[in-house]
Amino acid sequence: MKKIGLFGGTFDPIHNGHLIIAEYLRVELDLEEIWFIPARIHPLKNNTDITSAEDRLNMLKLAIDGDQHFRIDDLELRREGISYTIDTIDALHENYRHLSPEFYFFIGMDNVNELHQWKEPKQILTKSKVVAFGRPGFTPHEKAKEFLPYIRFVHVPLLEISSTFVRKRIREGLSVRYIIADSVFKYIQEKQLYR
């Protein structure tokens, strides 16, 4: 059985905070690989200003280049419509059944309180091991309590950065050195993204 972490998101752009979380959870949970899964259309976010799938995928490839434990599965980008987690987990089980995979699905602790809004949340908890990452002090809402026994909570060192923060700094002409990979920044400059 292969233990694989699934890290989904829009990654617009991927930043070093994402990579720190992925590596920390890989070691903490003794996972063989982390698979980054960029979303085409996030069901609970405003997708109007999202960067093209091609650019987000290219930046992701640059950011993880050379890391033998990180890989990308672009099935959500190839699939039309909204990227529902349960559909992705079902497809991954089907596509990689020869590996007998044990999937660990990563979510931020704040997302635990939104699980009741997700498509088939109980199926997600059945078909993968859900790992919520964040800092101590998380308070679950009443609607989240039924899910808590099935979620593993892991405290990770988090940087106070987000993709929104990165885009804002680039728009304002401020440095993002050490916040994103140099190769990703070079790509952003070449493509004139986030201007």
Structure in words:
With 195 residues, the protein is α/β, with parallel strands linked by helices. It is built from eight helices and six strands. The protein has helices spanning 16-28, 53-64, 75-78, 85-95, 109-112, 121-127, 163-171, 182-191, and strands at 2-9, 33-38, 70-72, 101-108, 129-134, 151-155. A six-stranded parallel sheet has the order 3-2-1-4-5-6, sandwiched between helices. α2 runs antiparallel to α8 (182-191). The chain is globular. The termini are far apart. The mean pLDDT is 94.
Low-confidence stretches are: none
Give a short account of the largest sheet: 6 strands, parallel
Principal-axis shape: globular
Mean pLDDT: 94
- The radius of gyration is 16 Å
Distance from first to last alpha carbon: 45 Å
Tally of helical segments: 8
